[in-house]
Amino acid sequence: MTHLTDPRALDALFGAPAETSLRKEAAHLHPVYRDWIARSPFAVLATSGPAGLDTSPRGDPAPLVRMPDAHTLLLPERRGNNRVDSLRNILADPRVSLIFFVPGISETVRVNGLARLNIDPALLDSFALQGQAPKCVIEVAVQAVFFQCAKALVRSRLWAAGQPAERPPVPTAGQMLGALTQGDIDGAAYDQALPARQAGTLY
C-alpha cells in the first residue's frame, strides 16, 4: 500500500505534536494575536461550497482587517473580478479560514471561524478607500487562532529578495507562546533556540 488511509498510521508516521504546537492555539483573538494581525496587509481566505473549495488573496494597507472585539474580524470585500467564489461559498457554508502574512516575517497566523456577509451602509462607508466603499464586509466569528511556524516560508525563501532593513514590530514566535501560556513556556528561550532548530529541521 502506498497511500495512507488510517489515522493511526498517520499518527505513527509523524509522531505526537510538540507541546508548543498545541499550546499556541486560542479560541479568541488573544491580545498578542490582535497585535500581530493588526500589522498584516495581506491574507489568504479559504472557503468551501457546493462547487468545491476556494482560496483567494485579500490585501489592503495594514491593518487589513478590523477587530471590534476578541471574537470578531471584519474583512472588506474589495473590487475584484466579480466571480465572488468565496462569497458564494460563504452563503452555502459559513466555515472559513484565513492565513495572515506580514512582509519580511516568516511566521503566519491562521484564523478559523464562521462568516457572514454584512451590507450595512454605514459599515461599508467606514471601510471606503480612495472614495470607494466595499460591496460587502466579511464578518468572521472567530473559533480558533494560532500562529504557524516559519519553516514553509524559510524553505520557499519568500522574503529573501526583499527583507526589510529592520524587523517590523510584530511579536516573535516566543513572545506569542509566552503570552498565550501565561509564561509557562519560556518565550525568550524558544526564540533563542528557534533559528538553529529551523535550520536543522527544514527537510
TrEMBL record:
Highest taxon in the source lineage: Bacteria
InterPro entries registered for this protein in UniProt: Pyridox_Oxase_FMN-dep (IPR024029), Pyridox_Oxase_N (IPR011576), Split_barrel_FMN-bd (IPR012349)
Coiled-coil region: none
Residue ranges of every copy of the Pyridoxamine 5'-phosphate oxidase N-terminal domain listed in the record: 30-149
Official protein name in the record: Pyridoxamine 5'-phosphate oxidase family protein
Organism: Pseudaquabacterium inlustre
